[in-house]
Design brief:
This protein folds into two domains: 3-294, Porin, CATH 2.40.160.120; 355-411, no CATH class. α5 packs antiparallel against α6 (322-345). The protein has a 16-stranded antiparallel sheet that branches. Strands 2-3 form a two-stranded parallel ribbon. It has a two-stranded antiparallel ribbon with strand order 19-20. The relative contact order is 0.14. By secondary structure, it is an alpha+beta fold. It is built from eight helices and 20 strands. The longest helix is centred in the C-terminal third of the chain and has 24 residues, at 322-345. It has helices at residues 3-14, 46-50, 66-87, 306-309, 311-319, 322-345, 369-376, 408-412; strands at 17-18, 30-34, 98-100, 107-113, 124-132, 137-144, 149-161, 166-178, 183-188, 192-195, 203-206, 208-214, 219-225, 236-242, 256-261, 265-270, 280-284, 292-294, 355-359, 402-406. Helix content is 21%, strand content 30%. The structure holds 7-hydroxycholesterol. Residues 13, 20, 29, 35, 38-39, 85-86, 96-98, 155, 157, 166, 168, 170, 194, 202, 204 line the site of 7-hydroxycholesterol (HCR). Belongs to the OSBP family. One of its GO terms (biological process) is intermembrane lipid transfer. One of its GO terms (molecular function) is oxysterol binding. Pfam families: Oxysterol_BP (PF01237).
Amino acid sequence: MSTSSWTSFLRSIASYNGDLSSLTAPPFILSPTSLLEYSQYWGTNTELLVAPASMTESVADNDDPIELTRLLAVIKWFLATLNTQYASRIRGNHSEKKPLNPFLGEVFVAKFKDQSDDKSLGDTEVILEQVSHHPPVTGYAMLNRKHNTLLEGYNGIRAFMSTTALNVRQYGHAVLEYKDLDEQYLITLPPLHLEGLLTGSPRVELEQKSYIQASTGYYAVLEYSGKGYFSGRSNTFKCRIYKNYEQSLNKANALYTVSGQWSNTSTIGRGPETPSSAGLMFLDMNKVKSEKLVVKPISKQHHLESRRAWQKVAEAITKGDYKVISDEKSKIENHQRALRKREEINESAWERRWYDDIDYTSEEHQNDRYIKLFEMAHLSAKNVPSGVRDTNSKYLNVDTKTHWRFNLAKFNAEKIIHC
Ligand code: HCR
């Protein structure tokens, strides 16, 4: 990559604000992968994902309530997803690149195949759909039928530049459900920023806080920092676990604290602090098993499936052929424009395949279990950045509460596109 083209790219993003799709990037900074695919990483670690499903009283090995043991297991899984979503995906010589901007209705389906000897994990189906283009929003679901476990949610991003970093706020949330236990976990999505733009090697650092609210009441607060705050290391976090939200108002009430690097190792201790070097090993990311993602060959994919739809653009990006990239992208964009025009004329809207938009202000959703989780954690259920408190005055004038939710019945009835 030439220094001058990188510098001119940096100059072009210095004044940039908002929708990442409007950012014109030179070929060397383009990724051949659609942003839609990035949500697959919620499902990589099947063993950790399904572990809580079989944690009942009978497996308890200390005096902790089993509900607390399950929350700790959910936190293990969550840390492993942070690693795959934000770090291990670009390990080695790779750095973050600008992903392809998914079109409305684009889908990605695949399976994390159970590779265990006794096939005890079951396959995890990955079901992703681009439910909005402006602003870009992806609906995601990881479904493990063997363990009756479903992780579902949606994600939208807004970005703005500061002097040295691209700052990203995530909108949306995830809900993990162990259906046999009738237990749910609301998970908020942390803010992040891209470091290393000036040196040409962008990488993600998580920041501020994210929360996990269990339907059992247990509550976890994760605090993130990069080099130099908690320690001199990147990808550092501290996670305190409480009996409930109210207990979290005083850190001294923490039942456990887990700390370390979400991309490496972490330790656990009882109470509000963990000794930084001692402490009991909680999770060693190097030992976490990932299952293999199996995607249908492109020739067998539907034209709405990511890798088929973007095939020519992706090939051109790999070859660095800017003319073909731009021609093939234009074809997709023009087709999308024509579809939107037709919908406008027919006064119709693009029908989402497997996700519904749910208005939490409507009467029929007042007893919704997900709203209850927001209330338990004192989080705003409005359309505000993920993890914002319901008391945050900056967002009190936001009135909408529309959220995307996976519709399993629709997916089960799907006749054309299969994993
Ligand atoms: C910020 C980012 C796009 C969004 C990606 C998200 C937040 C998408 C949802 C996933 O669940 C988690 C996730 C992981 C990615 O790390 C994050 C991406 C990292 C970089 C990318 C930017 C748009 C890339 C910009 C490229 C530069 C050079 C301007």
